[in-house]
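Sharing a chain and its predicted structure for anyone who wants a worked example. Both blocks are below, sequence first, tokens second.
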Amino acid sequence: GADGWQLSNPPILQLALLRGSLEVFDEAGMERIRAKALALGDFALRLLDEVAAKHAACNPGDHRVLSVITPRDHAARGTQLSLLVAPGESGVDRAELVQQRLAEYHGIEVDYRRPHVVRVAPVALYSAFRDVVTFVKALEECLRAV
């Protein structure tokens, strides 16, 4: 009966919103979106590598505090970058502390996954290269603090 329509068809207002978002994707073009997504990811990877190297140089006995575990190959990744944060003293999960500190002190939301992983995704439609710089600087501060 008519109740079946509630289950099988989304509400018309939600469809109108979906149509508007699909128009944004059409206007931007998926090729351009993917190209910017890869460029943002590559830029973030370079900056994250610099942070990891700088931390290793300053802390020779603690050289693997930050490792990017996302594949570098464009064909093997999307926009999400997974960062392995080595545990602290007594097995403290620094990744969880980093996630909390990013949110509390910098207003940056990332995804925390047990054990020891922080995930971040610069989204091509609304993230800028300056947002990547802001994130990496905040991450660097958080790594020093935890």
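Comments welcome. Residues 30-58 form the longest helix (29 residues).
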